[in-house]
Write a structure and sequence with these properties.
Blueprint: H1 5-26, H2 31-42, H3 53-74, H4 77-82, H5 84-110, H6 113-124, H7 128-138, H8 144-158, H9 160-170, H10 181-212, H11 216-236, H12 241-252, H13 258-282, H14 286-291, H15 293-317, H16 322-331, H17 337-348, H18 355-388, H19 391-396, E1 412-415, H20 419-430, E2 435-439, H21 442-450, E3 455-457, H22 463-468, E4 476-479, H23 484-497, E5 502-507, H24 513-519, E6 523-526, H25 527-542, H26 547-559, H27 563-566, E7 586-591, H28 603-606, H29 608-612, E8 615-621, E9 624-627, E10 640-645, H30 647-657
Parallel strand pairs: 1-2, 1-4, 2-3, 4-5, 5-6
Antiparallel strand pairs: 7-10, 8-9, 8-10
Helix pairs in contact: 1-2, 2-13, 3-7, 3-12, 3-13, 5-6, 5-8, 5-15, 6-17, 7-8, 8-16, 9-17, 10-11, 10-12, 11-12, 15-16, 15-18, 16-18, 17-18, 25-26
Length: 662
């Protein structure tokens, strides 16, 4: 039987990529760079081990679709709506700024405004696949700079249709528009709305029907149809495939099937999305880069600078913390994957690029992608260095809002105003305890201050801000932010300012526990372990383990810093619980029938426990439940008695309430 060539090439691709990624892992270098390098090695400009590049690119595009689908699942519509203002305040200036600066820089080179505008369109796009993958791997998709990145990328994906429709207008070959631009725009909007409505309304019902069959294959097929179908619809409307997949995941994110769907598609995501980065690496002609190294490096530097500036400036004007400004600018400084598609069409269909310009663009774009993980890794260090040098504080102009006079001493500082921060603030407010909130989102701060909330804008890891909120006189600091690096720095600085401060930290990652404790945190609450604690506590309740003993076990686990849960091997300190405590105890219910002899009698009159041995622990009367009824409680027709006792005692109790009929 003939073996398809694509199988051999996929084997080569994955084997080389696996070897390179493993090497990069041992070197503690980003795996994404390893995948790009693997593509360079196996591609036509490397060893030439892959000839059928088109087939690999098709699979790679499917990998990006699955990647964006899973990212949509991990977000929610409420989160996307919350970043709407950022899309307009940061995303729109980013797009217009990239376009304008690129046109200004290339107009003289091309000698024509049309190729210059086209170059601006290529530059304004950032890589959704690269940025989203890095955010997920670093666990920072909910961080301040992560939210900025998602907002800007989402706006760019929505503008894909505008870019595609603009190409005939810019053409130097005489190609004209074949359709009405307004019609295409309306079509794109309607498709986006249709996909969201269909995914939120129809697909969950279809999934329910598939799950009823208990056939895993049917459920998986339904997922693939929803994902690929949505991607296909947005592509038909002139938008990107990735946008459709993202919308499909977003539509399912709030449904009861989100977690099951995510677990089903994760293996596909991790396997196929790597093909995208490999296929991008195949585009890089190393010999061309080496032959034109000064020019290529100059273009790479210009691209990084332009794309950094057009993100950083709006954020600075909105008074975002300096760290967020730096990381947001660096995360979006690369050229996007959609730009490759635009560049190809500009070369082959519309005469907007020549072959040399196309190669130059590809080389610079691939290098900016490869540099992104390194830039993000160095970003925090760069931000700290610039801040230490006084540049950061000067640019962000630290003029903190005043705080309530009640927060001058003995108060609680809440770092982060997400769900956890809001809940802590709500409870403290109900108890009339003083607190002040620190948050890095100026939009949130402005809105909450208008509602009378005691909230300050800034980076909670900055000593000046912690001094402003009187950390030296505070009673407690609660850190509930989604940036691990800022969390660590905040704990360290706060401990230095106030050795007596009680610091409580929420973290998503078990690996952070030891480091946070070393830096000075008093209590660390890892989300993963707290979920485990809640689950096993409920399991123990089902075994009727005494509640106070369950609480003792939980306290011991927390005081031991979750050591019992962190060890893979069995602990030498066994948790002793009386599993046979209530082995013979049962519960039963019994309805009081119209002819029951207990009707109209109180529990004292019946001497129920003395005569039967069973105890009535609750009585349900119509829709009302009376727990632990008192001795004078009178039984009526229709009451349902909830009783506890041994099997024999319960049998006697049922015969008393409902005597056998002759």
């Amino acid at each position: 039987m003939h073996q398809p060539e694509i199988l051999n090439e996929l084997l080569v691709v994955y084997a080389v990529a696996g070897l390179v990624v493993y090497t990069f892992h041992r070197l503690r270098a980003p795996s994404l760079v390893g995948l790009l390098l693997g593509g360079v090695i196996v591609g036509p400009y490397g060893l030439g081990l892959v000839s059928n590049i088109e087939a690999v690119e098709v699979l790679a595009e499917f990998g990006v679709v699955i990647l964006l689908f899973t990212i949509g699942l991990e977000l929610s519509l409420s989160k996307v709506f919350s970043i709407g203002p950022i899309m307009l305040a940061v995303g729109l200036p980013q797009v217009l700024g990239s376009l304008g600066l690129s046109v200004a820089a290339t107009w003289a080179y091309f000698g024509d405004i049309r190729p210059a505008i086209f170059a601006g369109m290529l530059v304004m796009m950032s890589s959704t696949a690269v940025v989203m993958k890095l955010l997920v791997e670093r666990g920072e998709i909910d961080s301040p700079y992560g939210r900025v990145g998602v907002a800007v990328l989402l706006l760019q994906d929505l503008l894909v249709a505008v870019c595609m429709l603009s190409l005939p207008l810019l053409s130097t070959t005489g190609t004209t528009l074949s359709t009405n631009p307004l019609f295409e725009l309306i079509k794109g909007v309607l498709v986006v709305v249709f996909v969201l409505v269909a995914i939120r309304v129809a697909v969950p019902r279809l999934m329910f029907q598939m799950l009823e069959t208990r056939n895993r294959e049917l459920f998986l097929i339904t997922i693939i149809v929803a994902c690929v179908g949505s991607a296909g619809m947005t592509a038909w409307a002139g938008l990107s495939l990735a946008l459709g997949a993202f919308l499909a995941g977003l539509g399912l994110s709030d449904s009861e099937y989100a977690h099951q769907t995510l677990s089903e598609v994760l293996p596909f995501r991790d396997t196929l999305s790597s093909l995208f980065f490999i296929s991008v690496g195949m585009l890089l002609d190393v010999r061309y880069v080496l032959a034109n190294a000064p020019l290529v490096l100059g273009i790479v530097g210009s691209l990084l600078l332009i794309k950094f500036v057009v993100v950083a400036v709006p954020l600075l004007l909105m008074k975002y913390p300096f760290r967020t400004v730096i990381l947001s600018g660096l995360s979006l400084a690369q050229v996007g994957e959609f730009s490759f598609i635009l560049a190809n069409r500009g070369l082959n269909e519309f005469g907007l690029l020549n072959r040399s310009d196309y190669q130059m663009f590809l080389a610079a774009a691939v290098i900016t992608m490869a540099l992104t993980p390194l830039l993000l890794a160095w970003g925090p260090t760069l931000a700290d260095w610039l801040t230490g040098a006084g540049i950061g504080s000067t640019m962000t102009a630290e003029h903190f809002d005043p705080i309530s006079s009640s927060c001058r001493s003995g108060h609680v500082i809440i770092a982060g105003f997400g769900l956890n921060g809001r809940n802590v603030a709500r409870v403290l407010k109900d108890l009339d305890l003083p607190y002040v909130v620190i948050d890095m989102n100026p939009i949130t701060v402005r809105f909450e201050r208008s509602r009378g909330e005691s909230i300050v804008l800034g980076d909670c890891s900055r000593p000046s801000l912690l001094q402003h909120v009187q950390a030296s006189d505070a009673r407690a600091l609660v850190v509930v932010i989604s940036d691990p690096a800022v969390t660590r720095r905040s704990v360290q600085v706060a401990r230095q300012l106030n050795p007596a401060l009680h610091i409580i930290v929420r973290t998503r990652y078990v690996s952070e526990v030891n480091e946070l404790r070393r830096l000075g945190a008093n209590e660390i609450i890892p989300e993963e372990f707290e979920t485990s604690v809640e689950i096993f506590a409920r399991v123990l309740q089902r075994f009727l383990i005494p509640r106070n003993e369950i609480l003792d076990i939980i306290d011991r686990i927390r005081l031991d810093h979750y050591e019992v849960l962190r060890r893979e091997e069995s602990s030498s300190k066994k948790i002793e619980i009386p599993m046979d405590l209530l082995a013979d105890v049962q519960t039963a219910t019994c309805r009081v029938r119209p002819d029951s002899p207990v009707i109209g009698k109180s529990l004292r009159e019946l001497a129920f426990r003395a005569n039967t041995g069973a105890t009535i622990i609750a009585v349900r009367r119509q829709a009302e439940l009376q727990p632990n009824p008192h001795a004078e409680f009178v039984l009526l027709e229709g009451d349902i008695l909830v009783m506890v006792g041994t099997g024999g005692q319960l049998d006697q109790a049922v015969r008393t309430v409902d005597p056998p009929r002759d």
